[in-house]
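Kindly inspect this today.
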Amino acid sequence: MRRAALMLLLSAVACTSAAPERVVEQREQLDAVVGQRITLIGVQSRTKQPMVLGVDVDGDYALSDRRVRATGVLERRTVAPEPFDPDAPARTSRGPGTFYSLIDPQSGDLARTELARP
């Protein structure tokens, strides 16, 4: 009897603690899920900084141009334009705009991609 009650309690806790994340497969859905745990599914870019749906991820170069998935918390940052100063040292940045990153909450780093199942 105790064993059955314990198993019931453990299964109830497991069901409530693991909230399902939202699956995002279109860039237009990003603003609605900022700050939430999500799973991105899309084609990984073949760029120096890998992206899926325009979101920075930690992707193996071998997965470039392939359909991948990555799970994490979506972060957004906006960079405002700065006035031009010809005497300022050159900077390497993407410039002004809105940028997204998918963060692994356990490590604090970019979320890793893996090959998506069909």
Q: What stands out?
A: The longest helix spans residues 2-17. Residues 4-10, 12-17 have pLDDT under 50 and may be disordered.
